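The instructor's notes for this session suggest beginning with a concrete chain rather than abstract definitions. Hand out the sequence below and ask the class to guess, before any prediction is shown, which regions might be ordered.
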Amino acid sequence: MSVHAIVLAAGASSRYGTTPPKQAALLSAVLAALERSCVKGLVIVSGAHPLPIDSVHCPDWQLGPGASLRAGLAVLPDDAEAAVVVLADGPDLDPRAVDRVIENWRANGGDVVAATYGGVRLHPVLLARAAWARVPDEGARSLPARLVPCDDLTPPGDVDFR
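After discussion, reveal the predicted structure:
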C-alpha cells in the first residue's frame, strides 16, 4: 500500500515574526524526519510565501489548512492509497510516529488515523484515499480519527507555542 507524505507549509507565518518565514526555516528538519520514515514520496504545499524547494502552490491558502491539504492530495500519484499529513513548523517530528501511524492503518484500516501524545491529538495524521474528498477548509482535525498513542516519542512541536 503506497503512502505519501504531505507537508503543509502554506500559511502566512504571521506569529513567527522573522524572515525567512517559519516554513522555510524549519522545513529541513521535517523533511529529514520524513526521509527516515517509510513514506514512498512527499509533496510540499506552499502558499503565502515561496519556498526554496519544489512545492505545489496553493492559491487558496487563506481558506485554511484544508485548502492546502486538498492541493497536496490533488497531485499525489494514482497509486497513493493514503497520505500522511505533517506541518512544516513541526521541527521535532519523529519518523517513528509516522511509521507507527502507517503501520496501524495497514493493520487495522480506517479512513483517518492520528498520533496522540499524552492524549492530545497531533501530527502525523494519515488520511486514506476514501477520506480525501471530505477534507473541510479547517483541515483534517475535524475528521473523526482512530488514535495511535505515541506517548513514548517527542511531539512534533509547534513553534507558535514555544
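Then share the key points. Strands lie at 2-9, 41-46, 56-57, 80-87, 112-117, 120-128, 146-149. The chain has a mean pLDDT of 91.
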